[in-house]
From TrEMBL, chain A:
GO terms for cellular component: cell outer membrane. It is a multi-pass membrane protein. Belongs to the TonB-dependent receptor family. It comes from the Bacteria. PROSITE patterns: TONB_DEPENDENT_REC_3. Residues 1-22 form the signal peptide. Transmembrane segments: none annotated. This is TonB-dependent receptor. Coiled coil: none annotated.
Automatic annotation (TrEMBL), chain B:
GO terms for molecular function: metal ion binding. InterPro entries: HMA_dom, HMA_dom_sf. Residues 1-18 form the signal peptide. Residues 22-88 form the HMA domain. Keywords: Signal. This is Cation transporter. SUPFAM superfamilies: HMA, heavy metal-associated domain. Pfam families: HMA (PF00403).
């Protein structure tokens, strides 16, 4: 009898006791030595059961006989799926990756990662990174990325600009789905016209980058990939409300039309109708705004034939009102009672893409793209009018194949672009018209060599014939060498050329009493010559283990050397001048970054940046105004373990510190309207908490500028906006103090 | 016009006699991990005339595209064998096999189990 009691007592224990699979994960290398990989993810396919390897690469994970596929993943290494037949101890060697895409699809990865193996210095930001701040649009999504600086919102329009390598956004080629989009009339506000939730991932390339996307990139390239109807949730809903009066709503609806055809409808609306003037300068701290943005995306997939195509239509209507609190557009427009401004933008984009991959000869691909956009901005700033109409057509065909074998790949093709600009500017009673048409036809060839080991190279060249820029050659080169395990040395070199849209790119000048002075030198664009620059870069990345957890350190040095530049001269407070560079202009930047996985789920990123940006102005060689020499950046993110229902907490905080910045000269102004030579330093902290309740539902709350940092008098001469000393362009820090927001995301798959 | 048609017909038939520049074939190659995959593919690609090589870890199938004017299947097979990987009907020389990394010793039952 006693025997049976023993058995009964033991039974529950048996049921509870679980089998465990143990093993070791090593790095696969040429030397036949076992280097343990610390912090590699090991988990069962389609389950939430996982483990992370220890100091010696060992792990143990619960095992049941119905678990068949064990996935082993580690950033910078190929993800392997192992078929497990029993709970025998396991040893596995992971191989470093040769392609980014393979890392990008794993279930648990870093939200932003640089590739050890690509020749270009590319960082990929996944949608995980984009969720770190409640980024409402593409511009704000760079706030947690140290390679891109997001400027403080402009005093009038509230728009934020991005910078790379110390150069502002016109020198960055910003593409959506690889088509240069944020340019021309859309240069300044374009990033804020792409809602954050529409973006699937972003690739940021430092240096001139590939020739395939054109000749305009100088400091870098940004490519945003949009959500695909095939992969996005059936229904996605995002609601956001902030104490600064901003309300946003995003809705995605995706459906399958037939086996091969999918469609998605993406709706975005934002609204701010509350007036704030916390610094009592009689001007709104943030503009009143209203935006409706609708995109319809069609995706056709025929895997048997190797065909994928997209068709997108996007309509945008954006309205902003800003200026003095008491300004009323109907009664005060162009009057001198109250200073005010309205910016109305309407835009239509239609784009199509067709890709064909040869199913017999798999290394052959063909891609064709065509885009049309019409962008119309009607605006006035006090008594200054600025209207721009920009119609743009872009088309491109790319053929990719190999030379003798897959170690030698190439891409070649042609593209054609046509831009028509029609601008009206001046005081409302006396405006002038600027009209120009720019067209270019170009052919490009890019060669990639991969020795299947420590070295690879991408060399590209393109020849363009443009009606305004002439016939010219654009060479680009990127090289990667791996001197030792987990080290990566990259070098790049390239030339860029572009026409400066002086009005569209410097719209903030209209909100000042400055007169516009264009020094005509009989060039083709506003009487000015095209800008030409060379960019050289060197980057080194080393991965290592620190106290048994993964870390990496990056050193970047980039130099941009202008052969010609359209100099924007703010040094006379009554005037803004544009002239061709006569002398030197360069931007040197150094960045060091340290990434560390401190604990399971806790990541730390620290960066320091040094910029030396100087230009020869008519008044001499000077530091670029409002560009800090020193910058510090810190970001820390913590995630709790995901529960079986998907529930999780996420915490994120970002610290930014900017050194002093040179103010443009105001010495000719009366003392009351003079600025100190250098601005004070500025530091800001943002933080966000996300509570994921399940895979379908999450709530987030956050604070921007927690320490309530504010600059004292963002607008010079705010007491007399129609006087001679009015200037809203001198913003070096936040205008709006701390603000809090709350949002939710709901998705149905 | 008629002459042109004759010419085209002649040309097309001449082409079909020429050897295939993009010959496709598959081979069964033994291996066990991602390192093996890299080694097998590298051995093929470094063989003159091979355009692309893709080895599937699960099915052990090696898909090849090669130019028949420049190489033949025998030469490609020899490259794979010299890299230390067995084919379905032919064994790699032992000295090549012995050079493989510990985790790639696919003839060893223990290594196979570990994967």
């Amino acid at each position: 009898m006693k025997k049976y009691i023993y058995i009964l007592v033991c039974l529950p224990f048996m049921a509870w006791s679980q089998q465990v699979l143990k093993g070791h994960i090593y790095e696969a290398n040429q030397t036949n030595k076992n280097y343990p990989l610390v912090g590699a993810n090991v988990y069962w396919l389609n389950t939430e059961i996982g483990a992370v390897t220890d100091l010696d690469g060992s792990f143990s994970i619960p095992y049941q006989s119905n678990y068949k596929n064990l996935i082993i993943s580690y950033v910078g290494y190929k993800t392997d799926t192992l078929k497990i037949k029993s709970s025998k101890d396991l040893k596995h060697w992971l191989k470093p990756t040769s392609s980014l895409d393979e890392v990008a699809i794993t279930a648990r990865n870093k939200s932003t990662f640089a590739s050890y193996l690509k020749a270009e210095n590319v960082m990929t930001m996944s949608s995980d990174e984009l969720l770190k701040s409640a980024c409402c649009n593409l511009c704000e999504s760079f706030e947690t990325n140290p390679s891109i600086d997001v400027n403080f919102a402009d005093a009038i329009t509230g728009t934020r600009q991005i910078k790379m390598l110390g150069l502002n956004s016109p020198y960055i080629l910003t593409a959506i789905e690889s088509v240069p989009t944020v340019r021309g009339a859309a240069q300044i506000y374009g990033l804020s016209f792409v809602p954050g939730t529409w973006v699937e991932s972003i690739q940021v390339t430092k240096g001139t980058g590939t020739v395939i996307n054109g000749f305009e990139s100088i400091a870098g390239q940004i490519n945003a990939k949009l959500q695909k109807p095939v992969e996005d949730s059936k229904l996605f809903l995002n609601l956001y409300g902030a104490a600064n009066g901003r309300l946003e709503l995003n809705t995605h609806l995706n459906t399958k039309v037939s086996d091969k055809l999918y469609t998605g409808l993406y709706l975005h609306g934002n609204l701010r109708n509350q007036k704030f003037d916390n610094n009592n300068d009689s001007f709104l701290d943030v503009p009143l705004a209203e935006q409706i943005n609708i995109m319809n995306r069609w995706q056709y997939v025929d895997l048997e034939k190797g065909i994928v195509s997209f068709l997108n239509v996007r309509i945008l209507n954006d309205e902003k009102q800003t200026g003095q609190v008491n300004f009323s557009p109907d009664s005060d427009r162009f009057s001198t009672t109250y200073w005010g401004s309205e910016i109305d933008t309407k835009r239509l984009d239609v784009s199509g893409k067709f890709s064909y991959a040869n199913q017999d000869i798999t290394h052959r691909n063909f891609d064709a793209q065509a885009n049309f956009s019409t962008h119309n901005q009607q605006s006035y700033f006090g008594q200054n009018i600025y209207n721009i109409n920009h119609n743009s057509l872009y088309s491109r065909a790319i053929y990719s194949s190999i030379l003798s074998n897959t170690m030698h790949k190439f891409k070649t093709g042609i593209n054609f672009s046509l831009d028509h600009y029609d601008e009206i500017t001046g005081i409302y009673s006396n405006t002038s018209n600027y009209e120009r048409e720019e067209n270019s036809i170009g052919a490009f060839f890019e060669y990639n060599y991969d020795n299947l080991g420590a070295f690879n190279l991408t060399a590209g060249i393109r020849v363009d014939n443009s009606n305004l820029l002439g016939v010219f050659v654009t060479p680009r080169l990127n090289v990667r060498y791996t001197p030792w395990s987990r080290g990566s040395l990259k070098a790049s070199l390239g030339r860029g050329k572009r026409s400066a849209n002086i009005f569209a790119e410097n719209q903030n000048m209209f909100a000042s009493s400055r007169s516009i002075n264009i020094v005509n030198s009989n060039g083709n664009i506003y009487g000015l010559d095209p800008e030409i620059a060379w960019n050289y870069g060197l980057s080194f990345m080393q991965g290592f283990n620190l106290f048994g957890r993964t870390a990496d350190v990056v050193f970047d040095f980039y130099k941009t050397d202008f052969k010609n530049q359209v100099v924007v001269d703010w040094e006379n407070p009554n005037q803004i001048s544009f002239y061709n560079l006569n002398g030197t202009s360069y931007a040197n930047s150094f960045q060091t970054e340290f990434n560390y996985n401190v604990l399971r789920g806790l990541d730390l990123r620290l960066a320091y940046k040094y910029y030396d940006v100087k230009t020869t102005y008519t008044s001499g060689k000077l530091e670029k105004p409002l560009t800090p020499k020193h910058r510090l950046f810190a970001n820390t993110a913590y995630k709790t373990k995901v529960k079986s229902n998907g529930a999780q907490w996420k915490f994120d905080a970002t610290y930014n510190w900017l050194g002093e910045q040179r103010s443009p000269s105001t010495t000719v102004n009366p003392e009351l309207y003079q600025l100190p030579d250098y601005t004070p330093t500025v530091a800001t902290v943002n933080a966000q908490i996300t509570k994921v309740f399940s895979k379908a539902f999450e709530v987030y709350a956050g604070a921007e500028n927690i320490t309530n940092t504010r600059i004292q008098n963002p607008i010079l001469g705010a007491d007399n906006p129609f006087g001679d000393y009015f200037d809203t362009t001198l913003v070096y820090g936040p205008i709006f103090g701390s603000s809090y927001y709350l949002g939710l995301r709901y998705r149905l798959n | 016009m008629k002459n042109l048609l004759v010419l085209i017909t002649l040309f097309v038939s001449a082409m079909s006699f020429a050897q295939n520049k993009n010959a496709k074939t598959t081979l069964q190659v033994n291996g066990v991990c991602e390192m093996c995959k890299a080694r097998i593919e590298k051995a093929c690609i470094k063989t003159k005339g091979v355009k692309s090589a893709n080895w599937n870890l699960d099915t052990h199938e090696l898909s090849l595209v090669y130019n028949e004017n420049k190489t033949d299947l025998k030469a490609i097979k020899q490259s794979v064998l010299n890299a230390g990987h067995d084919l379905k009907d032919e064994k790699a020389p032992d000295e090549a096999y012995n050079k493989l990394h510990g985790c790639c010793k696919y003839r060893d039952e223990k290594v196979l189990d570990a994967h």
